[in-house]
Amino acid sequence: MRKVISFLLLSAFVLALATSCERRRKQDVIMLYPNWAEGIAITHLAKLLLEDNGYKVSLKRLEPGPIFTSLSRGDTDIYMDAWLPHTHKDYWIKYGDKLDIIGTAFDDGSTGLVVPSYVDINSIEELNANKDRFGGKIYGIASGAGITVTTNNAIQEYNLELDQLNSSETSMITALKKAVSRNEWIVITGWKPHFMWANFDLKLLDDPKNVYPADKLQIVSRKGFSKDKPELTAFYNKFNLDETLLNELMADVSADSDPMVGARVFYEKHKELLDTWISSKSDKKDIK
Known about the structure:
- The chain contains twelve helices and nine strands.
- Helix content is 44%, strand content 20%.
- The chain is globular.
- The protein folds into two domains: 10-108 and 216-283, Periplasmic binding protein-like II (D-Maltodextrin-Binding Protein, domain 2), CATH 3.40.190; 110-204, Glycine betaine-binding periplasmic protein, domain 2 (D-Maltodextrin-Binding Protein, domain 2).
- It has 288 residues and is of the alpha/beta class.
- 38% of the residues are buried.
């Protein structure tokens, strides 16, 4: 009986390994992304550029925790929206020894608490004195997001008498839009880059305790990806947008229900720059 069980376990392992290998043969790169504006935009732009040059790309949307877990196990390849070294610090502490940073998509990431410009406070330290005008709430995003954890820390550091209301990025922006239309006070968790800065007149509250330090949007891979896929690694190493270009990309992508349509619009406007990031089809070597 034990021999039968051992044989079945071995067979299951071999089958799982074969399935994993077959999947990798079918895809040059498997990218993960979160349901955030900049993550959606940069990931779909990368997919467009790679597929236009003959690569096979698979995308999957997940929350940050499962993203880091999957990469650390080697099940998938790339995450282009890792906010490091601060916002996603806890994930990096847990999984960083099994991952590599192979590029920087954006150099000037910032997070914090954000209010409409007509709200006449300028610092996080002024929130408690006006908690009733804010309804005792800070509108945030998903509970697993790095900025959610940082905001919980800010609530403790500043002894804030407001509760963080966690939902989705879409719900948070909807609440912001509604408040602005009524000229009401609201405080949200915000970050740059994001299209909110182009669509609303906002300000980032001063953070004298430096709970929200600056980050970079790092491109993270599974261990061994650079050795396995040197040409793709070179592409991710070159992938970098400044704030103006990234805001434009997010605006283009958010203008259509299909992110690839917006990515194509952006590509056609900046083809000369973007084509320098990747080898042409004629130069592509066998990377399998």
